[in-house]
Amino acid sequence: MTCREYRDILKLVYLANKCEDTGSFIDILFPPLMNVFKTECATFHLVKGYPTHMNIVESRSFKLDNHSLYEDKYYPSLYTNSFYQHSPLLAEALSSSKPVLKIGDSVSFQDWENSVLYNDFIRPQHLYRELFLALHWENKLEGMITLWRSKKEPDYEDREVLKAAIIVPNLAIAVRNICLISQANTRQSSSLSTGDINIDGLILLDHRYTPYFFNAKAREICMQLISWVPYKKFDFGKGGFFIPSYIIQDCSELYALLKIKKQAVLCTKDRIITTESGKKFRIECSLVWKTNRISSTPNFMVILSCLNGGTQLESSLQNRFRLSRRELEVIYYLNKGLSDNEIGEKLYISRQTVHTHTKNIYKKLGTKNRIELYKRIEELTR
Fold first, then answer.
1. 198 partner at 20 to 30 Å CA-CA among 152, 190, 227, 368?
2. How far apart are CA 101 and CA 131, in angstroms?
3. How far is CA 202 from CA 90, 146, 286, 368, in A?
4. Residue in 175, 177, 255, 241 with CA at minimum distance from that of residue 210
């Protein structure tokens, strides 16, 4: 792709990440998104309850009419109430991790033209060609953006599919971050306890890596991660705390990737830290913009989670299959789709060591490959 195309992608990522709620995300992002992909209609759906009781909790649609953009209020409601379960691309997105799907590849045009969704819902809107952007997080579908063209328009080219594949992970991160930022803003004046709906630690850092928002859980976790630092260096009366150096390092590396590659490949950087006392924490860092200039330095969002006895699943895996702490960490990254090299970098071990752990995991769980392992984990979570 050309530098201009990468610039278009980066601009879309920038616009998505500077929003603080799904409303502004849609209003700000969709006009340029439709322009970049030359679409006549774009829809956004937010999904909840996957996989057992999935439903569409938010549905919005924009259409282009005589070069004028307007929001359709009728069809999104009809899709939510009646037609989403008939979508062949949604069905595939629920069963695979593909970021981008389209009519003609995932489903034949013949099957598409014979489908209930097309004949009763899509054709009346004078649409035909669909590019489906699946917003996955932790192997679960969190939402979707669909880009539509009429039958008289050319199909989406491979170059456009590649462009979409680059932007989709970033949009998934943006949607997740927006939800967390929205929670933080609505709860900022109230005390956040570990029993709150937002049980993870959340920190927002400015461009100088100084926290301008954090919740009680984040402060608590950071204090445990740096408990060896002399207490006289903190102003605890004002709730202050130091940010661990590896959080700053991960944020810096994300920003360096943006500066050096000048591409919108901005997926999260995460690691698992085990303290001397045996407590284990997952730290995820991602970029967010809080200014009105795309050339500005981004801010950073940090999510901290305690993993010790962190979930019933981890306890079950450890007790039932006699998995080691390291094997649990490898399983986490295997299910995220990382390669052996990438897992080794995350855990600071060699590729061969990752391979050995993976073989032991497959043997203990009675699986032969990643697909079987993922299905096995899914069975254990039901």
1. 227
2. 6
3. 31, 30, 12, 37
4. 241
Q: At what angle do helices 340-347 and 351-365 cross, to 10 degrees?
A: 110
Cα 115 from Cα 268, distance rounded (Å): 38
CA 151 to CA 21: how far, in whole Å?
Answer: 34
**Nearest-5° angle of CA 235, CA 274, CA 353?**
150
Q: 331 with 361: CB under 8 angstroms?
A: yes
Count CB atoms within 10 A of the CB of residue 39. 24
Q: Is 147 exposed, middle or buried (0-12, 13-18, 19+ CB in 10 A)?
A: buried
Residues 6 or more apart in contact with residue 15 via CB below 8 angstroms: 28, 29, 32
List, in sequence order, every residue forming a beta bridge with 134; answer none if it has no partner.
144
E strands within 81-139?
Answer: 100-102, 129-137
Each residue's pLDDT expressed in tens, for the chain with a length of 382 residues: 777 887 788 788 878 877 777 788 888 888 899 999 999 999 998 887 665 567 887 888 988 877 777 888 888 888 887 788 888 888 888 878 888 999 998 889 999 999 988 998 999 999 999 999 999 876 788 889 999 999 999 999 999 999 998 888 888 888 887 777 666 555 443 333 333 334 578 888 888 888 888 887 888 888 778 754 444 444 444 456 778 888 999 998 888 887 776 555 566 788 888 776 677 888 988 888 766 566 677 888 898 888 765 456 666 777 788 888 788 888 878 877 778 888 887 776 888 999 999 999 999 999 988 888 877 877 776 6
Question: Is residue 198 within 8 Å of residue 180, measured between CB atoms?
Answer: yes
What is the set of domains in the chain, with CATH numbers?
3-183 (3.30.450.40), 194-307 (3.30.450), 309-382 (1.10.10.10)
pTM comes to 0.64
